[in-house]
Amino acid sequence: MTIEELEHCIREYGTDIYSFCAYLTGSRQEAEDLYQDTLLKAVECSKTIRTEQNPKGYLLTVAVRIWKNKKRKYAWRKRIADGPAMTEAEALQAADKMQQSAEAQFLRREEAEAVRAAVNRLPQRYRMIVLLYYMEDFSVAQIASVIRIPQGTVKSRLYYARRILEKELEVVLNEKEC
Fold this sequence. Notes:
Blueprint: H1 3-25, H2 28-44, H3 55-80, H4 88-99, H5 103-121, H6 124-135, H7 140-147, H8 151-168, H9 170-177
Helix pairs in contact: 1-2, 1-3, 2-3, 6-8, 7-8
């Protein structure tokens, strides 16, 4: 892949990749870092990306692997020096809530926030699959190849994630029906 083709991929899929990174990390700063790391890795490996295959899938795979490595390193460091973790996501959520004006907009955001929060509370192995399946519209086979697990494992994790989300969002869904 040439640099021009890589630039085209970034223009075409950059927003989707950044959005995926934002949902995966739950933090604007971490999402920007992950996005930049993904693009840097893509530049490094630009000769291995094939435009006739799925470049978006390749870039999302790179993002997933970088995120897994960062989480693994963070967990290791936390075990060594157990320090408090800063959450920028909570600050962003508070700022968003203060800016809401109309009641309908407030209710939509509250519902969307409940869904985001429920997804963010999922264990990492479920969250990643839910994000790839629903946000990026990946098939089970594509997810299996990205994460490098069997398709049956993807299906079972998706099933359990749906059950967890259904239980957590039961109140929100019941209010919407009324």
